[in-house]
Amino acid sequence: MDLSILLKGPFIVSVLKALRHGTLKTLFAIFAITFGISSIVFIIAAIDGSNLQAKKIINLLGPNSIFIRSGFGGKGTIRRMTYRLNMEDFRLVSKVIGVKSSAYMMLKKVNISVGDNNMKAYVVSAMKDFLTVFDYRIGVGRPFMKSEYIYAPKVCIIGTELSQELFGNKDPIGKSIRIAKTSFVIVGVFRKKGKLPSGRSLDNRAILPINSYRKFIEPEYKRFFAIKVKVRPDVSYDSIVQQIKKALLTNHAPDDFVVVTPETIRKFLNIFNITLSVYLGLVSVTALFIAGFVMSNIFSINVKVRAWEIGIRRALGASSSEILIQFLAEATLISLAGGLLGTVVGLLAIRFLMPMLNIPVVYPGMSYVAALVFSVATGLISAAIPARQAANWEPVRALRTRL
Known about the structure:
With 403 residues, the chain is of the alpha+beta class. Helices cover 55% and strands 18% of the residues.
């Protein structure tokens, strides 16, 4: 098969004229391919983004760490959740053999202000070892001193986002901010931690020593939001998880708490990836199948409609391979147009839909390769039989057939 014909001007012109002649049918086929290809591009990006999200969450959780959060207990809601973890739970968890260190967290959303600059943000209590266990690293200033955990000083550590909101690019160390109804002096700014899977930022928080939190923010100390433990590297991580669950179940129902581990995160995101892949995969395969069906019918009709044209060309010396190449070239151009448009639509979906799903925005190169391969394959497979039929037309028979 001589493919050099593809580079000849008259051949290219004839291909473009043929596509323009059936504009409506060509556009319909392009749009069908576009829908399928955009779904494939989005699937690949969503899977890559979910894997990246899993790594970020696991890094946020910390190595050899277990996070225990108050559950809903079958009655609470996200906005009005009753904290169910208590001091007895903390003591039980801390006593599990293999637990290296542990800390609990209380938090409350309050008004934080500097002058006329006012905002709502979370205030977090910090018991001894809290900063270490919850992986808060000081970027500017200092951590709390031991005496500040015992007494109730009016000092705080804030996040980078909160610092930027209240002070801009100015150094906040030593300055005062008003938390609820009390003024606190900033002694440190912790390094950027990023966002939770829900999209909530961890960098717009203020941290107070535990007794300062109880005195000025929330006197309730019997129940709290979460416990985090770090496991010794020389013990079985899975065994510690099971022991912690068993200890908590002595005083609680299963839905009173949630134990989050790296394996929990991986399983959840794997289920999400599988669900998304199956759903969008069926959509994209269905769209490509419809596109292929449409293209196959378009080219079957074209073979009959253009029988006179085929007969003339064959009578003037065109070989059957040249006729075959022409129809396949037309199918390839339609497929490439659909693939290109589908890639653009897929990129727009990545840009605007993935943030709504709280998935990191990524643009994997594999999606572009998949778009090219699937679009061209759809076109060539769909046009193969009609193109072969056109190539096998006898000149005399073709000239006698004119619609």
